[in-house]
Every structure is written in structure tokens, then in C-alpha cells.
User: Fold these one by one.
Assistant:
Number 1:
Amino acid sequence: MSKKIFLIQRDALQPGEVRKVETPGCPLAVYNVDGTFYATSDVCTHATASLSAGEIVDGDLIACPLHDGQFHIPTGQAMGFPCTVDLRTYKVIEEGDAIYADLEQESEAAASAI
Ligand code: FES
């Protein structure tokens, strides 16, 4: 099963940047981590802040803007208090300069971490 949606053009998101993208059902946060694109739910699992308003720190962590909780971007893993529930991740598909997400599949890093 696949539900591919367009997220962003590659050159619209520079390394170290995160952007909110509205999709049917759930806003996503799209990240450029040193040239690799990732997508997660934009909604912090602690108290529903928008993670795309936060910052990428320590290479591949997103720091929530509300209480500074952190998640590992590739796997969605919650990194500790106050975040205890992992983020939903989405498989990213790159086709030329266009970046897509498959809303039916988790990221490859999350899938291989199970
Ligand atoms: Fe994100 Fe509290 S809402 S850490």
C-alpha cells in the first residue's frame, strides 16, 4: 500500500532547515539533515507543539520549541523527558528535485530499528 504526496522541492529546504507541510490528516515536519531528507509528524507527542517551529540540533535531533524535548529525526525516537512517546515517521521518496512522502510507510531508519 502506498499513499505518495508531494512535500517540497529539494532547493527550497537547505541543510539544517525544517519546514511544516500540510497533508490530508496530519501536518508533517520535513527536514534536510546534511542533504538527506526526512519526514515526521509535525506534532510533538508531549503537548502538541509544532516541531517545525523548533530547531535541528546535534546533527539529527529536532528540539521542540515549547519544552525543549528532543526526537531523533531519522527514527522518530523520543530522546527523554519530557518526551516519552516516539514520533511517527514517514518514508521519503526523492524523484529528481522533488521530495515526496509515503503516508502509508514509516521511514527506512525506523523500520530497520524494530
Ligand atoms: Fe514538545 Fe513539550 S510540547 S516538549
Note: The pocket of FE2/S2 (inorganic) cluster is lined by residues 44, 46-47, 49, 64, 66-67, 69, 82-83 (CB under 6 Å).
Number 2:
Amino acid sequence: MKKRIAVLASGRGSNFQAVIDAIAAGTIPAACEALITDNPGAYAIERAGKAGIPVRVIDYRSFSSREAYERSLLAAMQEVDADLYVLAGYMRILGTDLVRSFSGKMVNIHPALLPSFTGLHAQRQAILHGVKVAGCTVHFVDENLDCGPIILQYCVPVLDGDDEDTLADRILEREHECYPEAIRLFCEDRLDVIGRRVRIRS
Ligand code: GAR
């Protein structure tokens, strides 16, 4: 049976688009039931509109406290009642209670080969550190930032002439392959989480 997914995105939404396209192509056996965003100006909203996906805007700035914001976000997520929540460039750190509510049902993509370069500006961190290989990681979300069990990692070379932007572009191309593939595996019930390790069933 088709899974129901919801995507959380804060900005451009190119990973969201890759998921929309993979669903439309029949690669991911799922329906995207909602886009939830904290940013009323997110380009992801236009992408959702074109694909006929309902949008929930939960504007962080309109809440008096972080707790109130998180309560509203939790309620919106529970309302959608998705099988999988997909963080696609969602740039707010989620509170422990919220994360625990969706344990094993929330995934994130990060533009680095975790556990290296967590947090913001991962591609810049990679350039500054001088690594020769970079990439992206799709992982389950747990209470710690960019830390949950790893589902897939795709890598790219770092070239001599690279700066943060050229490296980010090369990684992003791979993100658009990696995220739909990881979501497909989840939707086909092929992921077993054993401690920190994710086994992919054939
Ligand atoms: C992507 O590179 C994603 O990996 C990154 O933000 C970008 C969003 O692009 N996420 C993080 O850094 C989360 N820590 P998109 O809006 O075009 O998908």
C-alpha cells in the first residue's frame, strides 16, 4: 500500500521537487499529503502549489515562544498523520519532545558525509577542512543534531578549484538522487534499524 508522506522545508525546496518528481514518475510508492514550512516566503510553497500539495505555513516569527511554535508544529504534523516526515532543507532545530513523537518516522538530508561537518554551512566546513571527498547523508532524525542512524550516503570529489558554491552544487545533484532513493526504500518497508545501523533488505 502507498505510504503517506509530509515534507518540511524552509526555502528553495529543490530536494522537495526531487521527491515530487520521483512520486510522479512512480519511483516512490507514496503520496505527498502536505508541505509544512516555517517560512511564508519559501519557494517550496510554489512547488507545492504546482503539484497540488496542501501547504501549512507555521511562521516561527508569529509565535511568542519556541514552545508555542513547537506545539503548533506538532499539532500540524499529527493532523497530517503521515507515515514519514521528510525534512528537506528545514532549517530549524526541532525540540526533543517533537523528535521523540516521530521516532523512526522522520528523515533528514544533510550536505556532508556525517558524522563530519554537522550543523550549518557543511559545504564551507568541508572546503575549510580540506577534505578530498564530500557528499550527502540521509538519516533518521533523533534527539541530537545530524546524528540519527544513517540510511544512505553518496559522495562526490572535492576538486582543487572548488569553493563553497561549486562544491554545494555538486553535492546537491547527488542529494536529488540520494533522497528519493532513501525515501523509496522506506516506503517499500525495506529499512531495518538495528541500534545505530540501518540494514537495507533486498
Ligand atoms: C540542501 O543542501 C540540504 O542538504 C541542506 O539545505 C539545502 C536545502 O536545499 N540542509 C541542511 O543543511 C540541513 N542541515 P533545497 O531547499 O533546495 O532542498
Note: The radius of gyration is 16 Å.
